[in-house]
Amino acid sequence: MRSAYAANLLLLIFSFWFMLGVCGVHAWNFRMDPEVDPERVCFLASVKGGREVQGFFEVLLSPDSDAPAAVGFTITGPVVDSKQPEKARGPELVRLVEVSAPFVFAAPSDGEYELCFHYGEEKKARDIAFFYDLGDAEDEVSELLRDAVKQDKHLEPLQHRAVSIMHELRNVRIAQMRMRERIRQNLRMLQERKRSVMWMTLLELLTVVAACTLEVVFVKQKLDTRRIF
Hints:
Number of strands: 8
CATH architecture: Sandwich
Oligomer: single chain
Radius of gyration: 29 Å
Structural class: alpha+beta
Number of helices: 3
Helix content: 40-55%
CATH topology: Jelly Rolls
CATH superfamily: Mitogen Ypm
Order of helices and strands: HEEEEEEEEHH
Number of domains: 1
Shape: elongated
Largest sheet: 4 strands, antiparallel
Strand order of the largest sheet: 1-8-3-6
């Protein structure tokens, strides 16, 4: 009996660490360009019904503009009962118009979900960081935990606690990715500004050298003129 309890406890611990290893977040850094994608940029995600999908997006700063332009973001569910599925659109589940925003929704049914970005009022190119988690790893680990609890009811309190911790870790992981992207964005902007300052300094130096050279030539010409007379 004790050995069975120990085995189930080890399975519970293994399941928890398995979740930490396979917790997959889909990450994209892409560029919206009206010359390439005139209307929108979309991603397809296959989601099981009842699963919670969460993530965030952020329009990245550009050296060419003072502030990033907002984008429209929509999530559309699978088409239901349509005679022309290739032309029909499913129900709209999320609609945001932001520069940076988190999102979360529960999939009402199994199917392909469209996660789309729209240009909004300003139809110009922009870079976007996009992350989302479909909860795949969480579901797999929950199945393993349920199997362990079926064999030993003493593990039920641990199961509830582990599921709660998994959910919190999922939120922390997405928040970490968001923070890393902001740090990466700030470093990129810092490098761009450093490069700009370097070129401006070089230009100023060349201007000073050119001005000094012209001044020396002008003074020399004046002195030569006085010697002649």
